[in-house]
Structure formats: structure tokens, C-alpha cells
């Protein structure tokens, strides 16, 4: 089994609200179709310009604070359902039976971390040769009332349960660089190297912001999978090459 994360910056233009790169998602679906059904897949996608602007607007991460936050919680969820529907249709056009599963219905969080889940639907979908399609979403939270459950948090939880062969993150750049922009692409990393970066900050690699979070997730993921790939989802065949275990990108191993 392979878990594929379609980053929000791949399926949409984050600078333009509710933009959707249908041509890109259809091509990603086509690349997956080359390997399905011999290979099982779970697909998780980010919020892109659908979920993130609304989550900020309604301050979802600040928790439950009356009717306004309840309203925003629902509106944000509806936007993610709309995005999931668009992704699903792109997969169907490539004869892939992707089945959207609402993350807020199967995960409960505490401070944004999953503390309870019901994965029977995912397991049943896999056993019947569907491709479960999950997504970053709002969540009911035991500490704050409401929160966001990110695509990366979902992938980590799924990896612990299903122990995939590999996890592939589709990004809008070629992988992890020693600095960005203008740096050198790092082709291979180990979990120990990532740990030393996080502790010392002196590795020559810029481990700030979103990339730092991605590397921390990768370091955790390799406890449950053989390898984690970061590849450019906007470039044709990069996903296919990662699936077979080679190509341009960054691979993290234990």
C-alpha cells in the first residue's frame, strides 16, 4: 500500500480563493491508475485555497467561541467537501474508484492531534478495492471544542494503522533543499539527520516553517513505513517515478 498526499499548493493556487487545478489532479490520477489495482492506495489532500482562507477568516484554531465559530466551522467543512468532490471527479475520469471519506466524521482531536478515530470505513473501502480519499478538515476537539486536523496529521495516523510501503508527498517544488530559494536539492535524508537538524539548527539546511514541519512528520513516519518521498506534483511522471522508487525528489529513510 502507498499513501499519497496531494499538497494544497499542488491542487490549487493558494493566492486565489477557491481555485482548482483540475488538469493537474487529473494527471496525478492518471499516474496512479498505471499502478492500480495491483497496488493499493490511500489518497489524502490538503485544503489549498478552499479550506485555509476560511479557517483563518473564522479563526477555527482559536476554538469554539459561540455561534460565529460554529458557523465558520460548518462553512469551512462545506468548502472542504466541495474540494474533495472535485478531486474525486478527477479520479473517476481516470476510472479510479476514489471514495471521499469526511475526516471530521472519523477523527476527534485534542489540540489538533488525533486522539480518537474510527477507521472501519477506510478498511472496508480498501478491502473492496476502493481508494479511500481523505482530506485536511475541521475537527471536534476535546480541549478547544473545535480545531483543524491537518492532512499530515491524518497521514501519520493512517501510517501507524496500515504500515504502508511508502508515503509520497506531492509539493510545488522538487523536494527538500539545503536552502530555499537557490539551494541544492537534497536527494536522501535519514531520520537521524533530521533529528540532528532539529536539535542543532547547524546542518546547513533551512529547517523553518512548513518545511520543518514536513521533515518532523517524515522523521516520525519512517517508524511505520520504508520511505517517505517529497516530489514535485506539478511535473509529469514525478509521482510515477517515486512509486517505482526512483526519480527526482527527496527520499527519507530510517
From TrEMBL:
GO molecular function (one): isopentenyl phosphate kinase activity
Segments crossing the lipid bilayer: none
Residue stretches making up the Aspartate/glutamate/uridylate kinase domain: 1-224
EC number: 2.7.4.26
Principal EC category: transferase
Binding site for ATP: 5-9, 48, 172, 210, 214
Catalytic activity: isopentenyl phosphate + ATP = isopentenyl diphosphate + ADP
Binding-site residues, substrate: 47, 52, 151
Site (Transition state stabilizer): 14
Keywords, ordered alphabetically: ATP-binding, Isoprene biosynthesis, Kinase, Nucleotide-binding, Transferase
Superkingdom as given in the UniProt entry: Archaea
GO cellular component, one term: cytosol
GO biological process per UniProt: terpenoid biosynthetic process
Pfam families found in the cross-reference section: AA_kinase
Entry function: Catalyzes the formation of isopentenyl diphosphate (IPP), the building block of all isoprenoids.
Similarity field: Belongs to the isopentenyl phosphate kinase family.
Alphabetized PANTHER family for the sequence: GLUTAMATE 5-KINASE (PTHR43654), ISOPENTENYL PHOSPHATE KINASE (PTHR43654:SF1)
Description of how the protein assembles with itself and partners: Homodimer.
UniProt protein name: Isopentenyl phosphate kinase
Amino acid at each position: 500500500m502507498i499513501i499519497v498526499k496531494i499538497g494544497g499548493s499542488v491542487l490549487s493556487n493558494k493566492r486565489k480563493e477557491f481555485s482548482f487545478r483540475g488538469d493537474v489532479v487529473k494527471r496525478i490520477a492518471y499516474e496512479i491508475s498505471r499502478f492500480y489495482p495491483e497496488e493499493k492506495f490511500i489518497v489524502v489532500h490538503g485544503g489549498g485555497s478552499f479550506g485555509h482562507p476560511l479557517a483563518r477568516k473564522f479563526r477555527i484554531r482559536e476554538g469554539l467561541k459561540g455561534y460565529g465559530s460554529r458557523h465558520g466551522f460548518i462553512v469551512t467543512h462545506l468548502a472542504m467537501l466541495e474540494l474533495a468532490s472535485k478531486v474525486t471527479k478527477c479520479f473517476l475520469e481516470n476510472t479510479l474508484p476514489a471514495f471521499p471519506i469526511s475526516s471530521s466524521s472519523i477523527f476527534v482531536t485534542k489540540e489538533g492531534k488525533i486522539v480518537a478515530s474510527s477507521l472501519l470505513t477506510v478498511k472496508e473501502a480498501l478491502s473492496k478495492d476502493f481508494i479511500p480519499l481523505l482530506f485536511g478538515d475541521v475537527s471536534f476537539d476535546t480541549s478547544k471544542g473545535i480545531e483543524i486536523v491537518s492532512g499530515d496529521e491524518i497521514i501519520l495516523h493512517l501510517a501507524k494503522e496500515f504500515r504502508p510501503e511508502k508515503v509520497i508527498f506531492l509539493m510545488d517544488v522538487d523536494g527538500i533543499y539545503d536552502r530555499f530559494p537557490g539551494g541544492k536539492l537534497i536527494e536522501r535524508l535519514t531520520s537521524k539527520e533530521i533529528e540532528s537538524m532539529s536539535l542543532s539548527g547547524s546542518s546547513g539546511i533551512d529547517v523553518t516553517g512548513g518545511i520543518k514541519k514536513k521533515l518532523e512528520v517524515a522523521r516520525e513516519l519512517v517508524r511505520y513505513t520504508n520511505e517517505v518521498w517529497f516530489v514535485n506534483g506539478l511535473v509529469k511522471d514525478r509521482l510515477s517515478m517515486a512509486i517505482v522508487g526512483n526519480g527526482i525528489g527527496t527520499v527519507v529513510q530510517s
